[in-house]
């Protein structure tokens, strides 16, 4: 029963009624207390005293906006109606919101005077030393208590604000430290990539150049020339990537052109140098969308898919299609679907293979890339290339980071298909 009551109370606090009460109560409750004080002290018979006291209590509604004026407005209630709550609350608000030694000192003297001297002044007895001393002490305590409490609350708020600023500063320093660690790690990775990969690729390029010069076989010469071109291209991309890793900010460095920027224009060259039986069906013009990030993602998808074909399906026939789509499946930051798929300009529907050019003329909303290969040739020799399955994982992460999707699965004929869709808005 107690647990249910606690749950209900927490729900009330967090609801609209609770928020309204937290906003209104600090303003209305002091006014109600001051009015109750006025009624209890003066009763309902003393019209002047009760009226002045109620007016002083009602003025507390404006104490946050005009603290000094409201405090001065409550002094007649203390002097004539002998109320305490209204002037004490007014003085507390003044100390919490408008602190100042001179201002608080003058207001404290005014409250002491209003409390010490009786109404009317003819009732004041100068010779009543003992009674006057007790009243003066009471007036001083009545004046000092709200000032001390108001200054304490203000100091606590300032301390909380400074602690919050310090916390933000510490978090900022933590982020800077993390960025520094990342920069150091990027520099280490750059050194490792340069020392390991560049040395091996350079040896491959030198060996290919030696074969190209020494052999008389035209086919071997062409193969050696292709190997050397690929080695040079790999070294160039490696140099750019090392520059990105050594830079302070990878994205900023990429924007400045440090990283390679392959796009759809380089796909024919990539396919030509792949040494595979590839049919390329283009349904979109390179650079037509202006989304270089999307085109680069499409290029990397084709590149990784062709690499997987060489590893796992040697001798297989490959079909590469790049087409616009009207609507692309999109995913949110946690990986859930956010959009709906409509008819693509290309894809698995072979009956629409000749409509790619017409679809490219429309205002497509995205880009679809499909790489489909058949079963491997049983007579072909599979290269002993290492593979850990990280390529498709990286492609899927790249697609999701751009708001798109990637599908990779086996086909019924023993082949494999990789299909990716990217919205142009991501570029």
For the secondary structure, the number of strands is 5
Head-to-tail CA distance between termini:
57 Å
Domain tally:
2
Secondary-structure element order, N to C: HHHHHHHHHHEHEHEHEE
Give the uncertain stretches in residue-range form.
250-259, 329-363
Q: Strand-residue fraction?
A: 5-15%
Question: What is the alpha-carbon Rg in Å?
Answer: 41 Å
Instruction: Output the structural class.
Output: alpha+beta
Please count the helical segments: 13
- Going by CATH, the architecture of the largest domain would be 2-Layer Sandwich
Specify the biggest β-sheet. Answer: 5 strands, mixed
What can you tell me about this protein's structure?
This is histidine kinase. The chain has helices at residues 2-14, 16-42, 47-58, 67-81, 85-97, 101-116, 129-214, 218-246, 250-255, 267-272, 292-312, 356-361, 390-401, and strands at 277-282, 317-325, 366-373, 405-410, 416-423. The relative contact order is 0.06. Helix 1 (2-14) packs across helix 2, helix 2 (16-42) runs antiparallel to helix 3 (47-58) and helix 11 packs antiparallel against helix 13 (390-401). Helix content is 61%, strand content 9%. It contains 13 helices and five strands. The protein is rod-shaped, with a radius of gyration of 41 Å. It has 427 residues and is of the alpha+beta class. It folds into two domains: 16-169, no CATH class; 262-427, Heat Shock Protein 90. It has a five-stranded mixed beta sheet.
Condensed summary:
By secondary structure, the protein is an alpha+beta fold. It contains 13 helices and 5 strands.
């Amino acid at each position: 029963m107690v647990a249910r009551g606690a749950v209900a109370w927490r729900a009330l606090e967090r609801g609209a009624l609770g928020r309204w009460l937290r906003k209104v109560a600090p303003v209305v409750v002091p006014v109600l207390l001051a009015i109750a004080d006025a009624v209890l002290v003066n009763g309902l018979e003393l019209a002047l005293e009760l009226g002045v006291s109620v007016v002083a209590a009602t003025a507390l509604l404006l104490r946050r906006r005009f603290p000094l004026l409201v405090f001065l407005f409550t002094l007649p209630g203390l002097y004539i109606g002998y109320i305490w709550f209204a002037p004490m609350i007014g003085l507390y608000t003044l100390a919490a919101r408008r602190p100042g030694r001179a201002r608080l000192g003058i207001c404290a003297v005014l409250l002491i005077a209003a409390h010490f001297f009786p109404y009317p002044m003819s009732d004041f007895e100068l010779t009543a030393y003992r009674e006057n001393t007790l009243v003066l002490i009471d007036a001083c305590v009545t004046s000092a208590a709200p000032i001390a409490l108001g200054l304490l609350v203000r100091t606590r708020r300032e301390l909380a604000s400074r602690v919050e600023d310090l916390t933000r500063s510490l978090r900022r320093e933590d982020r800077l430290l993390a960025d520094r660690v990342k920069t150091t790690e990027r520099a280490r990775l750059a050194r490792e990539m340069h020392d390991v990969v560049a040395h091996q690729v350079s040896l491959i390029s030198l060996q290919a150049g030696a074969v190209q010069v020494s052999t008389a076989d035209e086919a071997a010469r062409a193969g050696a020339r292709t190997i050397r071109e690929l080695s040079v291209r790999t070294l160039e991309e490696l140099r750019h990537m090392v520059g990105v890793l050594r830079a302070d900010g990878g994205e900023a460095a990429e924007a400045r052109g440090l990283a390679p920027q392959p796009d759809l224009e380089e796909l024919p060259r990539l396919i030509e140098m792949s040494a595979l039986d590839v049919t390329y069906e283009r349904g979109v013009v390179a650079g037509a969308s202006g989304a270089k990030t999307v085109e680069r993602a499409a290029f990397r998808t084709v590149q990784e898919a062709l690499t997987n074909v060489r590893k796992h399906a040697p001798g297989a026939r490959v079909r590469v299609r790049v087409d616009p789509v009207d609507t692309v499946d999109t995913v949110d930051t946690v990986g859930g679907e956010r959009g709906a798929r409509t008819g693509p300009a290309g894809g698995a529907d072979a009956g629409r293979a000749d409509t790619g050019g017409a679809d490219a003329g429309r205002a497509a909303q995205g880009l679809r890339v499909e790489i489909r290969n058949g079963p491997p040739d049983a007579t072909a020799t599979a290269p002993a290339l290492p593979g850990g399955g990280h390529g498709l994982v990286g492609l899927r992460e790249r697609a999701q980071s751009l708001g798109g999707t990637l599908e990779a699965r086996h086909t019924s004929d023993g082949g494999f298909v990789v299909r990716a869709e990217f919205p142009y808005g991501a570029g």
